[in-house]
Every structure is written in structure tokens, then in C-alpha cells.
Amino acid sequence: MATRVHQVRILQVDEIAPATRVFRLERPPDFSFTPGQFVSCLLDVDGETLTKPYTITSDPETSGHLDICLNRVDGGRGSTRLFDMGAGASLNVTGPWGTFTMVTAPARECVFIGIDTGIAAIRPLLHRALAAPAAPVVLWQRAESPPHLLFRTELEALALRHPTFDYHAMTDTPLLETIDQRYVHADERRDREFFICGVGEIVAKLRDRLRAAGYERRAVHYERW
Asked: Which of 3-17, 144-158, 196-210 has the lowest mean pLDDT?
């Protein structure tokens, strides 16, 4: 079966940090997705069609739009093309794609780790986990370089509304050592579920450390960009 291409309009563009924007896209009426999935944007650059994946950072329950969040990368043809587009422009996308997802809130403690723009993928998962919290929910948000904690105001407000949600914002504290101390050495429990998303080798290091410590492979979900 041929991949279906959806033509959507860019409804709104918001700069949420230097060189970081959220693009609000029109949502096709028959487009359904699971928190954590992404769309592929088909971008015309110098006569060539580039396919660039971007996680949907909005919730499936939010009607009428799809939000994607991205940095402008120096020399990045895809991000440069998108940053040149404004509200009202048309964009072709395919999807949804991806298996870094959450269908229902976990029945055991759920630990989210969002690194830099990786928080964009964590955000809808977190909202799903808090929609009907059955167990404690923890978020460790780490901003590497530059230290921009995306969506911080929203996340702090969520922590105030949900007594079962524990939010940690980190800019200088070593992430690997913190997670190691808290979830490997602090107790013998190995019944937690982890969702890790970010850029670079730190994602694989966290995944491998938790699995080596005795957590089930299927309980340590990850997405590395």
C-alpha cells in the first residue's frame, strides 16, 4: 500500500527558545496517533524532496492541530527550510510513525527522562500518564547545551496540579550519575518503567545502565535522535 501524504497548513509558529520553534500544523480530520509518534515532513529543498521526522508534541485528544518542535541546526537543510516557512504555508507530511509510545498509563511507577528537545516526545507521554494516574510519575528534564528547559512553565504547573507527579529540572547536575544513584543504588526495586528521549550517546548510556542493573529490557523504552 502506498504511503498516504497529507497536505496541511502551518497554523502558527512560536519561538520557545533561541533557535527553537513549535510549528502548529493543521490536523487532517482522519488523522489519529498515539502519544510518542512522529510525522515525516516532505520538504522541497533545491529541487530535492527531503524527508525529515519530527515528533508530535501535542496530545491526541487535542482536536484540530498537530504540534512539532525543532531546533534550527547550523547547515541543516531540513530545519532551515522549515524555519523559512510561516503561518499559512502548506506542508506535506506522512505518518504517524514510531513505536516510542504509550497507549495507557502504566500501573507501576513511571520515570520519564527528557534531554534537550527530547522533551518534545516525552510531553505527550507525560500527559497520557497523568490523565488517569495509577502510580507515581517522575520527570527528569535535562538541558545540555544551551541550558534551555523547554516547556518548563507548563511542566511546573502540571506538578502543582498532580500530587503524584514529581518534576526535576536539571541544567548543571550530572544526569547519568543522578539516575544511577536514584534508581540503581538507592533501593533494590526493579519494577519501574522508564521512557528516555534525547540527543546523543547519553540515551544509550542510560538505557544500558538501567538494563544492566536489573530492570526488564521491555521496561526501559528509549528514543535517540
From this structure: 144-158
Would you call 4 helix, strand, or coil by DSSP?
A: coil
* Partners of 70 in the β-ladder: 21
Distance CA 73, CA 88 (A): 23
Strand partners, 90: 9
Task: Kindly tell me if the per-residue pLDDT of 85 is higher than 90.
Answer: yes
4, 12, 98: which is closest to 42 by C-alpha? 4
Alpha-carbon distance of 83 to 18, in angstroms, equals 12
Examine the pLDDT at 146 and tell me if it is beyond 80: no
Task: Dump strand ranges (E) for 105-161.
Answer: 110-115, 137-142
Instruction: Determine contact, residues 138/166, Cβ cutoff 8 Å.
Output: yes
What is the pTM for the complete model shown? 0.94
Return the DSSP state at 172. S
CB 222 within 8 A of CB 202: no
What is the Cα–Cα distance from 105 to 128, expressed in whole angstroms? 6
Question: Residue 215, Cα to own-chain centre: how many angstroms?
Answer: 22
Report the alpha-carbon distance of residue 133 to residue 172 in Å, rounded: 30
Classified as helix, coil or strand, 118 is helix
Nearest to 84 by CA among 125, 44, 129, 127: 44
Of 28-32, 61-65, 161-165, 209-213, the range with the lowest mean pLDDT is: 61-65
Q: What pLDDT, on a 0 to 100 scale, did the predictor assign at position 147?
A: 66
Q: What is the CA radius of gyration of the chain?
A: 18
β-sheet bridge partners, residue 194: 111, 220
